[in-house]
């Protein structure tokens, strides 16, 4: 009885909506006059990671474009004219945005342009804007942005010719430029190199694995009275052996040696500072328990090892990487932390400017209150491999800052505030991790990075399961279960495929303003709401004729697809998996009418998601079988026969 009442209410809502649209729609005419350029800060921009933006010198003036589209209500800003050209040439670009009505580009004829040592265009002020159709473009020159080679536009052809005479390249007009192939590292490139990233991580591990097997030169208690005396007397490239027992010491390692514990060897600090500080390349700590660090969460301005003054994040580095820790690697490249257990007062392992280091088979227990700590593993300017780690109860399980190329894989993170937290970190691989009961977010990627791969992770019991920001990332084959929001989509130009989003309050929450993502072959099952979309245009989650599986979409024909589109944000469609008898309603003339209006009236297309080719059975049945709801997701054959009693 209750279900029939709910269906009647839905029908009434549809009919009211149809009546309102029929008498009250006001469509604004965009007009035919060319609009004036706007402030670039007022555009919805893409093409430059925040790390790169913060790191630019004050006089750097990167080429930019701003585009007014016929079907998109916002002005889109591109860092790099090549970024617009690459986007314009992508399949489906016109479907999402319409045709470019007007394109403005930076006019380097309006300034005295030079190139920095990095190849970045510099000037004493921002260039003016000029119409792209009448501009001239220097291509193939020495000019660069942080993303690579860039195109430099000029209003005057003679200025463009003078630039290429000085810096190489050639001059082309607008139409010629649009016909050029521009290669960018997009999400497809990221997908295709995941295996190579794993191989690179294996090679980095192999490069430091020999550190665990260095010959023993010094035994604590036999050759030296204390661990520190043994470190100070041991020749480089040898091992200091620490027999079973507790050693109440604070250690400094300034040479390339290995500190290896036997049985239950424990290094316990006195509650002040970092317990083990290493400042030499190819240092290793193996087979130890470490406890007794200080509880200072913010550095005092002094950092071990080399100083790097003048960078935009120096203060942040001193504060975070200078906090007390169980183990601190500072300017210690190619080092190894292996088979170590840490009882952390603030941070477990700090890696600062310690590239190509490895942290593996490590257990970190963080402070009881996450507010008292920083991270289980903190990587600062340190492309690190973290694998087979178990990290619990911290502020952040793994925190990364400007550690491009970071790898976190095969690790377990439980009960932290944030499981894996990336800041200003691009080209990372987060793979095959298990994250449970983070109080805030399982995997949180912030500050607009690029080209991250997030694959094969299992995330359960978080406020937000997976929250990637940035652009051109690859998010695939993740299991997102029992979160308030399974997947938050703020990224642009990214590819989401093969993810199972099940049992969440909201399956996917979309807040990206640019409709540039590819969302396909994902499975949405038993979420209270499969998808929710904020302000912005209609998002079409179908790519090359392939959509997603939505529990509740029905009325199938053919082998693999549902007959007709499905919108998880539409009033009726979003109820189909929750309301008995809704399949009958889904075929009603009222729904057909409202669907037709949604496809033609701009005001009804915003804040919505539509799948034009939903699949009639799950795309990832094996992954879905790891949830309690696999039997709720019907196969094509089962739908054709009807659900079992």
From TrEMBL:
Residues 382-552 form the Periplasmic copper-binding protein NosD beta helix domain. SUPFAM superfamilies: NosL/MerB-like (SSF160387), Pectin lyase-like (SSF51126). Residues 291-310 are annotated as: Disordered. The chain crosses the membrane at residues 7-28. Coiled coil: none annotated. Keywords: Membrane, Repeat, Transmembrane, Transmembrane helix. This is Nitrous oxide reductase accessory protein NosL/NosD. It comes from Natrarchaeobius chitinivorans. The lineage of its organism: Archaea, Methanobacteriati, Methanobacteriota, Stenosarchaea group, Halobacteria.
């Amino acid at each position: 009885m209750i279900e029939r009442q709910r269906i009647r209410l839905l029908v009434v809502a549809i009919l009211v909506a149809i009546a309102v649209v029929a008498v009250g729609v006001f469509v604004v005419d965009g007009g035919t006059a060319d609009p004036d350029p706007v402030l670039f800060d007022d555009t919805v921009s893409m093409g430059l990671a925040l790390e790169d933006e913060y790191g630019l010198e004050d006089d750097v003036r990167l080429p930019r474009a701003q585009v007014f589209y016929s079907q998109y209500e916002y002005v889109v800003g591109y860092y790099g004219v090549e970024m617009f050209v690459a986007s314009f040439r992508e399949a489906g670009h016109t479907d999402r945005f319409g045709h470019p009505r007007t394109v403005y580009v930076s006019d380097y004829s309006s300034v005295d342009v030079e190139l920095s040592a990095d190849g970045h265009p510099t000037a004493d002020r921002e260039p003016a804007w000029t119409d792209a159709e009448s501009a001239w473009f220097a291509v193939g020159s020495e000019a660069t942005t942080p993303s690579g080679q860039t195109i430099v536009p000029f209003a005057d052809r003679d200025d463009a010719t003078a630039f290429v005479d000085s810096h190489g390249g050639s001059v082309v007009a607008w139409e010629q430029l649009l016909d050029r192939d521009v290669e960018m590292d997009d999400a497809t490139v990221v997908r295709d190199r995941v295996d190579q990233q794993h191989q690179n991580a294996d090679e980095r591990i192999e490069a430091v694995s020999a550190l665990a097997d260095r010959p023993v030169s010094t035994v604590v208690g036999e050759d030296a009275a204390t661990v520190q005396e043994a470190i100070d007397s041991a020749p480089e490239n040898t091992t200091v052996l620490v027999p079973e027992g507790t050693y109440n010491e604070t250690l400094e390692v300034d040479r390339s040696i290995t500190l290896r514990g036997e049985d239950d060897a424990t290094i316990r600090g006195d509650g002040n500072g970092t317990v083990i500080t290493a400042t030499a390349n190819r240092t290793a700590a193996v087979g130890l328990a470490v406890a007794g660090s200080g509880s200072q969460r913010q550095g005092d301005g002094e950092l071990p090892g080399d100083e790097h003054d003048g960078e935009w994040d120096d203060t942040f580095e001193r504060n975070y990487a200078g906090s007390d820790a169980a183990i601190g690697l500072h300017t210690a490249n190619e080092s190894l932390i292996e088979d170590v257990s840490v009882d952390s007062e603030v941070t477990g392992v700090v890696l600062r400017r310690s590239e190509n280091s490895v942290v593996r088979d490590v257990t970190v227990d963080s402070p009881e209150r996450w507010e008292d700590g920083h991270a289980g593993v903190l990587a600062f300017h340190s492309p690190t491999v973290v694998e087979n780690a178990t990290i619990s109860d911290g502020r952040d399980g793994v925190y990364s800052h400007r550690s491009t190329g970071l790898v976190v894989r095969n690790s377990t993170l439980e009960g932290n505030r944030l499981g894996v937290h990336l800041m200003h970190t691009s080209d990372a691989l987060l793979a095959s991790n298990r994250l449970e009961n983070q109080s805030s977010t399982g995997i949180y990627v912030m500050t607009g990075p690029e080209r991250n791969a997030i694959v094969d992770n299992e995330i359960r019991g978080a406020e937000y399961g997976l929250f990637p920001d940035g652009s051109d990332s690859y998010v695939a084959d993740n299991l997102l279960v029992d979160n308030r929001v399974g997947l938050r989509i703020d990224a642009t130009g990214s590819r989401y495929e093969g993810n199972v989003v099940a049992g969440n309050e909201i399956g996917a929450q979309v807040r990206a303003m640019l409709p540039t993502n590819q969302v396909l072959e994902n499975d949405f099952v038993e979420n209270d709401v499969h998808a929710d979309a904020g302000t912005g245009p209609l998002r079409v989650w179908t790519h090359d004729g392939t959509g997603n599986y939505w529990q509740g979409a029905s009325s199938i024909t053919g082998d693999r697809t549902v007959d007709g589109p499905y919108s998880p944000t539409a009033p009726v469609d979003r109820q189909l998996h929750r309301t008995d008898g809704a399949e009958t309603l889904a075929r009603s003339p009222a729904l057909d009418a409202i669907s037709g209006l949604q496809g033609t009236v701009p005001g009804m297309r915003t804040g919505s998601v539509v799948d034009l080719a939903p699949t009639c059975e799950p795309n990832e049945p094996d992954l879905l079988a790891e949830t309690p709801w696999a039997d709720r997701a019907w196969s094509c054959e089962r739908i054709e026969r009807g659900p079992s009693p």
